[in-house]
């Protein structure tokens, strides 16, 4: 049987039900590696004074886990630097926050070379290699330099930017050229695949073959849209777990006579949390008859604390939430609660189930699996309403949500009012359509579509073919 090798920046081993990481990447890869016998390789999250390439290997839930430690300088330049201060803001359309530093670029190239040299000896001739996300764009080039001839695929979990933005990166052409060492490139939506195509045609002098592949830099690559999903059945099953039940009961008791609005996002400027708070503030001001009937809970775990921008976001959100509560609270009630900690997925399932509105309004997002988890957790007899940013990749698959521009506090306010007053019949119709799609276009469908295409099994996955759910 062909083995699947998954390579990502960090490795989160598969664990028991109800205990997976909240992160979409970890959840999706755990599901993939349960199905395919394989190996998951990446950075351990630890540092060592001097890089040795020494692998730590263990077997977890039928999956071989292999990790390597990095030097502190590697972490600063590759991870905190190029990945999170250069590529992340640029790919999320925040050129104003993008740092262009040659030392970051050099560290990024060095670490990808070290990853290739470490994993190379473990690759067998029939292995399929699946590389994940913006941390690892040059990895296929480094593996090819070592003589690896296997089929290698790359999936980008975040947006691919418009080519007018990408060209602000001094090394943009070298970055894109390295992607042509892959056999298959996967993007979350046709929009992102088209943006990549436009760059290749406009900036790299490339072309398209008759069968829909792209040619440039003397090489040819397949590319397409592969919208990632969740394990919908597993997530719905979590509602029967003890922790989910306790969380649901606690939130229902806490919001008696009120309707719960919930947001769950990593603390990041791309998530539109400040704009979301402003929209909620506008709702409170515009609807004095409804404001004491709601409670908004925003779960926003802190991440990347070593990056100064993230420290500043937390301070601004604390000030904004204080202002909102100061203006609208009374002795027995605060309208907004922001919690900066992680919760288990079964606890989140209970939280989603208790919420009458799921507020998912990123300024730019590759997909956003919180939107799909919220839908999967709803009560089929009395579902809540999803309010979703038009700039989340999920919006193309979820037209029955209330779609908003997250930059407009008026649109967020109006959508909240509509969601909170929506008749049951309309809520049922919207939820049923959403849940049907979340269930059918799940993480297994995503995994199988990509791996089948990478293996060369019959599948039309070029960008010219739009997935049925995105055709509208």
The residue-averaged pLDDT reads 91
CATH superfamily annotation of the largest domain: Glycogen Phosphorylase B
CATH class annotation of the largest domain: Alpha Beta
Please identify the structural class as seen in this structure. Answer: alpha/beta
Question: Topology of this structure?
Answer:
Blueprint: E1 4-10, H1 24-35, E2 38-47, E3 55-60, E4 63-70, H2 72-91, H3 102-119, E5 128-132, H4 139-145, E6 152-155, H5 163-166, H6 172-179, E7 184-187, H7 190-203, E8 207-208, E9 214-216, E10 219-225, H8 232-237, H9 242-254, E11 259-264, H10 273-286, E12 294-299, H11 308-328, E13 336-339, H12 345-354, E14 357-360, H13 370-376, E15 385-389, E16 402-404, H14 409-420, H15 424-440, H16 443-455
Walkthrough of the structure:
The radius of gyration is 22 Å and the shape is globular. The protein is α/β, with parallel strands linked by helices and 472 residues long. The protein has 2 domains: 4-229 and 443-459, Glycogen Phosphorylase B (Rossmann fold), CATH 3.40.50; 232-440, 3-Layer(aba) Sandwich (Rossmann fold). Strands 3-4-2-1-5-6-7-10-9-8 form a 10-stranded mixed β-sheet, sandwiched between helices. 42% of the residues lie in helices and 18% in strands. The protein contains 16 helices and 16 strands. The longest helix has 21 residues, at 308-328. α13 (370-376) links the parallel β14 (357-360) and β15. Residues 17-22 and 462-472 have low confidence and may be disordered.
